Model the fold of this input.
Amino acid sequence: MDLELTGKHVLVTGASKGIGLETARVFAAEGARVTLVSRRAEALEAAVQQVKGQTGGAVDYIAADLSDDRARADLFDAAPDIDILVNNAGAIRSGPLSDRTMDDWRTGFELKVWGYIHLCMLYAPRMRARGAGTIINVIGMGGRAVRSSYIIGAAGNAALIGFTNALGAETPQDNVRVFGINPSATLTDRMTDRLRAAAKDRLGDENRWEELLDPDRFPFGRPAQAQEIASLAVLLASAKVHYLSGTVVDIDGGGQWAG
Done:
């Protein structure tokens, strides 16, 4: 199926690794021009070369600290006329309320919550004036199936779910779509780094980390794969499913309903 993404300019934040990098790769494989964004230029340079090598696509990058208002505005100035924005940057610390500080709350919200909202404030009016565009917010199941052990993520992701629902209800009048994706636990570098540390501590060998992946904890006996999240984002960005806006899709293998 031709997803009609050839030549579309896609900007992906948090794109130097994990879900963001895989999303950039899948868009590039579909013929889109992709701009990768994250903090560190060195990591972005390596990511660009990786995506180019895998897809042969048109790929570039912009280094930006998206926890900063000025940096977000500068990013918009550098790439104002994109067709698709994928908001993916942001890691919120886990832990219950008693273990978290106000700095933890501010840090988590500044990059992810305010970062997503600000980039939508910058890009949505431009897209609406042009009469075309798509915004995808990669949020997280922490805002849907809330846990006390992830209280900052519960609050921040829930806010972004509501924001995406509301904005995506407004923009179709100007032919702009806004929707979200809630991944559950996904096997990215962040997860494997934690598992390696745990395996070294508990088993004496970080390379035994896969032994700590209890299949009973996950639907289908495994965590989600970054490619699955990326493929969903790219499919839903296609004009083939144009009548989609204001929705946040849960991709959790049905885990939120498990007993």
About this structure: The first helix runs from residue 18 to 29. The mean pLDDT is 95. Residues 9-185+225-253 form a domain with the Rossmann fold fold (CATH 3.40.50.720).
